[in-house]
Amino acid sequence: MFCRERTLSDSNDIKLAANGDKHAFKRLYERHVRGVYGMVFRLTADRSLADDLVQEIFVQAWQSLPKFDGRAKFSTWLFSLANNVGITEMRKQTRWFKRNERAVEFNTKEEADSTTLDLGELDKLIVQLPEQTRQVFVLHALQDYSHQQIADMLNIAEGTSKSQFFRAKKMMQEWL
């Protein structure tokens, strides 16, 4: 029931927001920001970068909303946009290892208390994965992309995607 109500609310707010209604867009933002932030944070393992990317994603969503055709659910469209923005930004980054170190350092009790997003045990493990392994795991296990789609997005071989996913599962099983 909740999902259906959310879809109906989204549908109405999408029409209004596409015509420039900022209040309708704010309601869409409030309904979806936590999910988008969670996905982007898992992908980047960097709170500051995730904050910046979420802003960018919603700016792009506002600009692109008139082109939204409704063939997919709004959340699917928004997460696809978020994924594209996240992957593009990850390609721009040159300090992969530094970002991973910061992610583990930020994952302290003090940092967790200062945010409204409570990281679960799985999230704590995900941010400790090596960069490409984490990206593949998030895209395949949490966003349900195929290994071929991931290979295309990350410019890697399909077999590399599969092996990175296997590596992520193995590492997390060992940590558990």
CATH class of the domain at 2-103: Mainly Alpha
Global shape = elongated
Q: What is the strand content?
A: under 5%
- Order of helices and strands, N to C? HHHHHHHHHH
Poorly predicted regions are 94-98, 106-118
SS field, number of helical segments: 10
Distance between the termini: 35 Å
The CATH homology group name of the domain at 2-103: RNA polymerase sigma factor, region 2, helix turn helix motif
Helix content: over 70%
* CA-based gyration radius: 17 Å
CATH topology group of the domain at 2-103 = Rna Polymerase Sigma Factor, Chain: A
Number of strands: 0
The overall average pLDDT, rounded, is 81
Provide the structure class: mainly alpha
CATH architecture of the domain at 2-103: Orthogonal Bundle
Q: Give the biggest sheet.
A: none
Family: Belongs to the sigma-70 factor family. ECF subfamily.
GO molecular function, one term: sigma factor activity
Domain RNA polymerase sigma factor 70 region 4 type: 120-172
Pfam families: Sigma70_r2, Sigma70_r4_2
Structure in words:
This is RNA polymerase subunit sigma-70. Helix content is 78%, strand content 0%. By secondary structure, it is mostly helical. Residues 94-98 and 106-118 have low confidence and may be disordered.
Summarize the structure.
This protein has 176 residues and is mainly α.
Keywords:
single chain; 176 residues; mainly alpha; Rna Polymerase Sigma Factor, Chain: A; 10 helices; elongated
Question: How does the SSE layout of this entry go?
Answer:
Layout: H1 2-18, H2 22-44, H3 47-64, H4 74-92, H5 96-106, H6 109-113, H7 121-126, H8 131-142, H9 147-154, H10 158-175
Helix pairs in contact: 1-2, 2-3, 2-4, 2-8, 3-4, 8-10, 9-10
